Amino acid sequence: MAENTDLARGRNPATLTRTIAPYTLSMRPLFLLGLVLVACGSQPKQAPLTQRQRDSVIGASSLPGARGVKGALAVQDSAAKKRAMLDSIAKADSR
User: Fold this and answer.
1) Taking the CB of residue 56, how many other CB atoms lie within 10 A of it?
2) First vs last Cα of the chain: how many Å apart?
3) pLDDT confidence of 75, banded at 50, 70, 90?
4) Which element (helix H / strand E) includes 42?
5) Which of 11, 41, 46, 74 could form a disulfide with 6 if both were Cys (CB 3.0 to 4.6 A apart)?
6) Could you give the percent of the chain with pLDDT greater than 90?
7) Which residue has the higher pLDDT, 46 or 9?
8) Is the pTM of this model over 0.90?
9) Is the pLDDT of residue 19 over 70?
10) Maximum distance among all alpha carbons in the chain?
């Protein structure tokens, strides 16, 4: 449809593309620069994993020795529960 209006105005579509092409070529580097800047934009930093979190990830994996890590975490959890229980008993006795 744009060709019909251009022809009606006495413009040759072939010359229109030649006049538009330099503008398009000058915009291409700007577009690519914008695309690179968006792609390389700053991403939010994640907090580093704690030792417990790293061990949990390893324990859940299928790496060799992962079962041992998972077992060690279970022992650590049960020891923490016993310690918390003994602490609560000691606090109740001291009152």
Assistant:
1) 15
2) 92
3) very high
4) none
5) 11
6) 40
7) 46
8) no
9) no
10) 102
Backbone angles phi, psi at 8, to 5 degrees: -65, -30
- How long is the chain? 95
Closest by Cα among 61, 92, 95, 56 to 77: 56
Q: Which residue has the higher pLDDT, 64 or 23?
A: 64
The alpha-helical segments, DSSP class H, found in the chain are 2-8, 13-39, 51-60, 66-94
- At 15, list the tokens: 């010359």
Measure the CA–CA gap between 2 and 4, rounded to whole angstroms: 5
**How far is Cα 6 from Cα 12, in angstroms, rounded to an integer?**
7
Residues 6+ apart with CB under 8 A from 69: 55, 58, 59
Confidence of residue 32 (pLDDT cuts 50, 70, 90): confident
Is the torsion defined by CA of 48, 50, 53, 55 positive or negative? positive
| Helix, strand, coil percent values for the chain (each to nearest 5) | 75, 0, 25
Q: Amino acid identity, residue 18? A: R
